[in-house]
Amino acid sequence: MTEQTIDKATLSETPAPVIHVSPSPHLADQSLTTQRIMLDVVIGLIPVVAMALFVFRLYAVKQLAISIVSCLVAEALFAKMRGRELPLKDCSALVTGIILALSLPGPAPWYVGVIASFVAIGIGKAIFGGIGMNIFNPAMVGRAFVMIAFASALAASGYQDVNSSVDAVTQATPLDTFKQTGAVAPLSALFLGLTNGSLGETSALACLIGGIYLCIRRSASWEIPAGVISAALVLGGIANLADMDSGWTVLHHLFGGSLLFGAFFIATDPCSSPLTPRGKFIFGLGVGGFVMLLRLFSGYPAGVMFAVLLMNSLTPLINRWTIPRPLGAQ
Amino acid sequence: MTAQGKANFFSQAWLVLVLAICFGGLLAGMQILLGPIIETNKINETLERVPVLVFGAAHATELSQSGMEINPLSVGVEKAGKSVRYNVYETKSDGKLAGWVTKSAGQGYADKIEVLIGFDPRMEKITGLFVLDQKETPGLGNKILEDGWRGQFLDKSTAKPLMPVKGKATASNEIDAITGATISSKAVTDIINTAVADLREPLADKAKGK
Amino acid sequence: MADQPTASERFIQGILPENPVFRQLLGLCPALAVTANMKSAVTMTGAVLFVLFCANVITSLIRDLLKPHLRIVVFTLTIATFVTIADRFLAAYLYQMSKTLGPYIPLIIVNCIIICRCEVCASKQSVFVAGADAIGQSIGFGLAVSAIAAVREILGTGNFFDIPVLPAAWPDWVVMILPPGAFLTFGLLIGLVNWFETVKASSQASEVLTPAESEGS
């Protein structure tokens, strides 16, 4: 089968017997540049950003502005310190800024976004040698730093602002409410995103739209979200069967918290996820598994950040396990 | 051959042996000199807290000069076939029983939490709470150290078990849980409840007996 | 032994050129574990100074009696003795501090700085040189742990030696007084030291046409 097609291809291309000899990487598709991927991610994030702006209004504007500006400033500053030309046009700092902002709670004070951005770009990326060299997802490094540094500003109560005129911000997040009181949020609200939470995580619908766009454009590998979702379905299903009365079903697990946002936009970061399709699926399974473990058994109701960082650290190992075997090799 | 071998061992090891003996002597001397001071430090650490827990911070300093007496006791409690021992400090002011302070510990969020709890002589209410040792999350769980939170336990009745609640505590046996650190709040409350359940009767009996 | 460094050279080298923490990467356990605030860092430095000085002096005194294959036993014995003395002393006179430092005072026994100095310097050179070396290395260790502790305490609590130095509105970076903060601060400070070295080396290289002789190793 394959031989035939190859034969056909070579036959049809006979008029130009040119052999290109070039150093690696041997990119099959020249259009798949960093800039294109990053622009695609920005486009994919549009529904999520729109939903955040709609639900959280000024809170979302504030966090987005702070994080994007700080990330761009940090990127420029660290590039200058390292004596490199300005790398702003590859848009990666913009993407880091948007993802970071969307992973923060709206009422978090201004310095949280600024410090998270500088840590994300500086410690998450520049120290490892810039884009493509980082072993951890920069936005999640930044968020983990502020999560531990300003625990009270990012813990359950950090999401609520009782003086707010925006309805969503005055209620506790659905996962927290469930963890503490056992009350179950309506599935439709979780799906559309009319609940409280980090700016970008509330709407499952927006994450799905943007995520599917990314997968179709091949800017994100579909194997990773597929892995995350299947692990969440299996473990969520077991949890659901084990505790039928709670009312928190598999779909609640799937649509609640930042699982889908993490699956499509955070775990798919190309530098810190494995290379092969099989490795990507394993990576996704790991992220989903850790998220569910953290949700069910830990004090943190939302564990996507820790799950992604943990699996990032396993990426080199997964890469070694899943080296593709050449055809005919033992 | 053997004699030579032995001589060889000694010629090799004599320095180590001599040093070991010298250093051993030095350490023994240090222990004799410093041991008692360390022991008093350990006892004082707890004893210094006792007056505050029984009389409150305002009265503790003025009373400590007058006739106050603190007797450490060890109270054994039979519980589900196991015997548990509590370190209890009986506090007397001018010869009259003024209150009890007990040391208790339990599992917190990160590690063991060790507390001192003060009670009135008849074990009817809590007169003070002090956290001796904890390793809870800084910024969240370690708020159990703050005066404001610990102050809630003052004058709580021991009749009903205490309950940590989210939001505002309304009933008399409710305690405001620390936001974001429900587990730490519950751990401290549980430690107190266990100590109350174990010690209320034995200590109240003791108070009546005197 | 003509090429052995003199006492003043040993003293100077310990402080910056051969700084035990930033240049030799020795004694990292205390440098990471007890640098959450200045007070414990300074106490730790005091304990290290005491142990290192005593161990160096004793080792130097008995250096001609040492059997090469038994020297590590002797070093460990000496170090363990003085560590125990330091530990008991702290428990007696600085009880709270000794509770805070916990196991890290007994762990000085396995602190590589001390065994390294016994091996490199004290077992080969006179008492005077060994003493100077111990003081120099301890100052170097103290500077390094104080640098880490200063960054961590100021960012983490807004205090310096428990005295507030930043405005009350400062949001405490709790992460800095937790273990991750130790690793981050330590890594960034090593980076800073290396950067200074590179800048110094390149400026020397441009001033002198012949390549500058590398100092130390």
CATH topology of chain A: Ammonium transporter fold
Instruction: Please count the beta strands of chain B (DSSP E, at least 2 residues each).
Output: 7
> Which runs of chain B of at least 5 residues are low in confidence (pLDDT < 50)?
none
Strand residues, percent of chain A: under 5%
- In total, how many domains does the architecture of chain A comprise? 1
The Rg value of chain B, from CA coordinates, equals: 24 Å
Protein described:
- The complex is a heterotrimer of chains A (330), B (210) and C (217).
- Chain A has one domain (34-317): Ammonium transporter fold.
- Chain A has 16 helices and no strands.
- Chain A has helices at residues 2-12, 34-56, 58-81, 92-102, 110-122, 138-149, 151-154, 167-170, 174-181, 187-192, 204-216, 223-242, 250-255, 259-266, 277-297, 304-321.
- Chain A is globular, with a radius of gyration of 21 Å.
- Chain A starts with a helix and ends in a 9-residue tail after the last helix.
- A 5-stranded antiparallel β-sheet of chain B has the order 1-2-3-4-5. A two-stranded parallel ribbon of chain B has the order 6-7.
- Chain B starts with a helix and ends with a helix.
- Chain B is 45% helix and 28% strand.
- Chain B has one domain.
- By secondary structure, chain B is an alpha+beta fold.
- In chain B, a hairpin with a 2-residue loop joins strand 1 and strand 2.
- With 217 residues, chain C is mainly alpha-helical.
- Chain C has one domain (7-206).
- Chain C has 9 helices and 2 strands.
- Chain C has helices at 7-15, 28-33, 38-61, 71-93, 95-101, 112-122, 127-157, 174-177, 179-207; strands at 159-160, 163-164.
- A two-stranded antiparallel sheet of chain C has the order 1-2.
- The chains are: A mainly alpha (330), B alpha+beta (210), C mainly alpha (217).
- Chain B binds chain C through residues 12-13, 15-16, 19-20, 23, 26-27, 30-31, 34-35, 37-38, 41-42, 45, 138-139, and chain C through 62, 65-67, 70, 73-74, 77-78, 81, 84-85, 88-89, 91-93, 95, 172, 174, 177-178.
